[in-house]
Amino acid sequence: MSIKRIEAVEMEVQRAFCAENKRLLLERYGRPPKALVRAFGCAQNMDDGDKIRGMLAQMGCQFTDSVEEADIALYNTCAIRENAEQKVFGILGQATHQKEARRGMLIALCGCMAQQKEVSDRLKKSFPSVDLVFGPHALYKLPQLLHETLLHAAPGARRRVYDTEDSDGVIAEGIPTLRTDKVRAGLPIMYGCNNFCTYCVVPLVRGRERSRMPEDILAEARGLIAAGVKEITLLGQNVNSYGRDGETGMDFPELLEAVASLPGDFWVRFMTSHPRDCTRKLIDVIARSPKVCRCFHLPVQSGNDRVLRAMNRHYTRAQYLDMIRYAKETVPGIRFTSDIIVGFPGETREEFADTLSLVREVGYQSLFTFIFSPRPGTKAAGMDDPVPAKEKSRWFNELLAVQKECGMRFFDGMEGKTVKVLCEGYGKEKGILSGEKIPDGQALLMGRTEEGMVADFFGDAACIGQFVQVKVTKAQNFALAGAAVCG
Fold it and tell me: pTM of the entire structure?
């Protein structure tokens, strides 16, 4: 497949639209407009949300978290599960109510939901208040699309703007980005997916796999480090496939090592890895790269071979466990997290028991667990699914209990130890240190360890955005608590 890379001249066109929109928006509202941007779902969507903010900032927008204050409300959506979609439709209803009371408000919906035809059709039929709808492939064209929306939004000329055409996807460099998190940052290295797991809608809405060029990724990483970012997460629907489109001259282990070799004091993470493409070469890079966090997210989805085949996962339980064993032997102290789907169509109680035994054997630090949600257009949506929802819920709760038992083992013996924590900001008052008096001159802070453990601690507010040593005084409920011993 030939990857469509957006030319620099086209990005200049979009920047020109930004300038024109700034003028039109100022005329429309008589002041700098306020924009609400909400992103749902995966880390990739969060990064797309930051790009949307970046473009809107170039159009002169200020930002708000309140739909009651918003002149422009833009929702970047996720299509992975049905309940996420229903939540968005409910939020659109709330925004519609606000629009009825506030003349001139614009509502836009974008992202993976927008790329689905059935969603687009529903929006056209049932949500006339939505002015602009566009899919992930049109993200870079937001300035142009908003310009068209503004021209057609006047009374008597109102016409909604849609850009949801099918596409294998594009790569556009140079989109301005306004990051809401100054400590941690996602860095996309590729987009799309070629795996077509039978339950997953991602290839249908995100397109085929396409990799950014290494020089663009490394340049962005250098910029993040220079801006003070302390944790960089390399993002992709399947990062292990990076470079297989044949244009980069570098595979994922080589790219990971190149990023981790950049000068500076920072951590590197990556997600998501598909087990079928995970290699010992990648594990070896983790072992010899001190900046790469020893916490590996490797989604297994099921512990039963028949279910894995029905999912079109292209690996067996034995192959997965072999990679886990090699990683444990090669990278001392490595921790694992994973995704698991409960109640895949046709899954039996005996097959689910294989998942429970795999969880115990691997000993995951934490899991992202989901009850199967059929997605339109996927093969699994048409499979027989005889297990009642109540039974799936019982299985789900059983899995949570097993994982809680496994996860708590990582916190045993932590009290009294000193750990390195990246301080992300202020902690929540109802956390593990609830009720304890904050020492004079200090603040309640929170962060995460290299292994991804949440840590609440007392320390100087100057610690925010920095690595700090924390002496653990409590370890419970999947969290650590303590006090900074330096900084």
Answer: 0.95
